[in-house]
DNA sequence: GTTGGTAGTCATGTTTTTTTGACTAATTGA
DNA sequence: TCAATTAGTCAAAAAAACATGACTACCAAC
């Protein structure tokens, strides 16, 4: 742990950080669903055919750590947890829309 | 090989395709270098410390297949190969710049 | 004809990512 | 109290991505 190359690499290629934060098998789809409103753990499992608890949990945790999603405990019945786009997440929407315009 | 889910998934999340085409350990950096002009195989190996032939070759091939880079044989001395941003690649620059604005 | 530069491929091994299935724990409704 | 729903965790296996080292092939200079 001398110098941190991650910072050096991101300095030489700033897009790399964001790309990584949105990359992975489930993150793009989770982001997209979050555009329409708060998402929930079990809801995502149902909405993402082929997904699984572990992968969705990991994606949510990493997107929360990357400050793309905000986790909230909703004090209602039934008590549950919501993931909402953060301010940064909302700022990323235009970039996301830009990517959507490239229909391969 | 019944229905192609890749298309279905990309239909439900169009950003996913582009994200995948730019994701990976070396593609973002290669894209960034290509912004400054044509890039070459051995040049990239030198410019990307820690990279290797196999990974760079794979990244170039996939970016060419994704129509982000165009491969050209340059009939000069020494005879060599150049990879240049395609029209689509150039269209992606604004999205890339957008990502760069998120300095994590 | 040997060295050095061009641009790779191939087989193998390592590392990272993703999946699977079992398990936990709190809350809610009947 | 029992069953379902909430939201996960954990260990292990499978799959995908990445790295290593050897090798190929062409061209030009010495």
TrEMBL record, chains A, B:
- State the SUPFAM superfamilies in the record: Winged helix' DNA-binding domain (SSF46785)
Q: Where is the signal peptide?
A: none
Where does the record place the HTH hxlR-type domain?
13-104
Q: Which domain of life is it from?
A: Bacteria
Q: Does the keyword Transcription regulation apply?
A: yes
Q: Which UniProt keywords apply?
A: DNA-binding, Transcription, Transcription regulation
Entry-linked Pfam families: HxlR
What PANTHER family has UniProt attached to this entry? TRANSCRIPTIONAL REGULATOR, TRANSCRIPTIONAL REGULATOR, MARR FAMILY
What name is this protein filed under?
Transcriptional regulator
Q: Which organism is it from?
A: Pontibacter amylolyticus
* The organism's taxonomic lineage, starting at the top: Bacteria, Pseudomonadati, Bacteroidota, Cytophagia, Cytophagales
């Amino acid at each position: 742990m001398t110098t941190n190359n991650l910072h050096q690499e991101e300095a030489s290629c700033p897009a790399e950080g964001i790309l990584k934060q949105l990359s992975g098998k489930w993150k793009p789809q989770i982001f997209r669903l979050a555009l329409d409103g708060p998402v929930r753990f079990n809801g995502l499992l149902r909405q993402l055919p082929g997904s699984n608890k572990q992968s969705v949990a990991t994606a949510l945790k990493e997107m929360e750590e990357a400050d793309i999603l905000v986790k909230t405990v909703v004090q209602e019945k039934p008590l549950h947890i919501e993931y909402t786009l953060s301010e940064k997440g909302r700022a990323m929407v235009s970039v996301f829309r830009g990517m959507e315009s490239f229909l391969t």
